[in-house]
Amino acid sequence: MFRNVRHMIYDLIEWRSQILSGTLPQDELKELKKKVTAKIDYGNRILDLDLVVRDEDGNILDPEQTSTISLFRAHEIASKQVEERLQEEKSQKQNIDINRQAKFAATPSFALFVNLKNVVCKIGEDAEVLMSLYDPLELKFISENYLVRWSSCGLPKDIDRLHNLRAVFTDLGSKDLKREKISFVCQIVRVGRMELRDNNTRKLTSGLRRPFGVAGNALC
């Protein structure tokens, strides 16, 4: 709603400048004024404000000098024009959605590119970072995991891959794009001792995989 009103205000500011410039011929000036009043009436309608009744030239009708029947007929005409505009925009939006779905259906597959910059998480030990795509409605993962082994020093275990941690989730077909929701999920698994504060050498363990954290972001 905010974006729609903002675009309308920008249009009205531009048209007002053209009207005040005094350079437009009378016929163009008349058409521009009709366009301005139509835009104002349309904006009032989508904002649930009162409909202003106007004459053929776009001037506001004076209820003191206009009969009740004339006001009623003018109100009917204005309401019909605004409703036609709303229906036209609704139809255009539906056509855009249909064309978009048809385009997706015609495309065999899509891909999602992921570039891991950093893991800002105080773990204290080595960790495994797993990234995958998840369908929250079906409660299941729809892709394989992209695995990055992260050291306790805050750097990748494979230091040669520093600043080059990239992956591509491929073969996302039209079926995946038609899902109502798809989330990008990141899981962190701590690899090390059973307890971080385990200082007893007799109980010291290593190499155990323990869930540490999870985060997700909705893609659609």
TrEMBL record:
Could you cite one Gene Ontology molecular function of this protein? guanyl-nucleotide exchange factor activity
- Write out the GO cellular component annotations: cytoplasm; plasma membrane
Q: Which domain of life does the protein's organism represent?
A: Eukaryota
One of its GO biological process terms is: cell migration
Task: List the InterPro entries.
Answer: DOCK (IPR026791), DOCK_N (IPR032376), DOCK_N_sub1 (IPR042455)
In this entry, which stretches build a coiled coil? Answer: 72-99
Which ranges carry the Dedicator of cytokinesis N-terminal domain? 2-205
**Listed name of the protein:** DOCK1 protein
Which organism encodes this protein? Jacana jacana (Wattled jacana)
Show the taxonomic lineage. Eukaryota, Metazoa, Chordata, Craniata, Vertebrata
